[in-house]
What we know:
alpha+beta, Glutaredoxin, Glutathione S-transferase Yfyf (Class Pi), Chain A, domain 2, Glutathione-S-Trfase_C_sf, Glutathione S-transferase family protein, Thioredoxin-like_sf, Glutathione_S-Trfase
Amino acid sequence: MTITLYCFQPASGLPDASPFVTKAMTLLKMAGLDYVEDRTGFSKAPKGKQPYINDDGEIVADSTFIRFHIEKKYGKDFDAHLSEEQKAIGWCVEKMCEEHLYWILVHTRWMDDANFERGPARFFDSVPAAARPLAKSFIRRKIANSLWAQGMGRHGAAEIEALGRRDIEALSTLIGEKPYLFGDAPCGADATVFAFVASVLSPMAESVIRDAALAKPNLVAYRDRMMRSYFPTP
Length: 234
């Protein structure tokens, strides 16, 4: 068995700059599956996005479908210890992270000039110097258009900050004093929540939302606990 995970690159203390890649990495580790990383596969991504995996010739794109694949092929039930209600809540929390907090994170990283230079600008280091400014401008415009189409880009900065603080407050409240989202053992949703909490806390982007997360000791401890369990420092 050989699983290849197509991903981006580590950044600012994160296993990968993309929370979706970090989620996929965490799921593979939670399932006890070995994998190798390939950081050269973006141009061949079947859905134009990463992550995706090649599992002995079977291509699976999107972090959620990677989870479904792991559960079906390897018989791993990430939520075996959860009630049906907890499974439903976990799904809702994942979608809040992936369909709402994600766009706030994108806006924070890409639309703020200082944050862009601190983080995403580094992604263009492999582009020839002469073409780099044009490439940066083109991609930032493309992302700005995506933010506008999705809706987050239509809000003012203060409005986006207010939405982000609500997400952080919700995550902090749900985790509470528990080690993981639903108690003493991690579940599938923890892979997603961890990926996004870690991304928000990363110094890649300074923001009111990051400050709000840093002010929640339980979120910082949760991030650290997941990092020690799945991405220990050598």
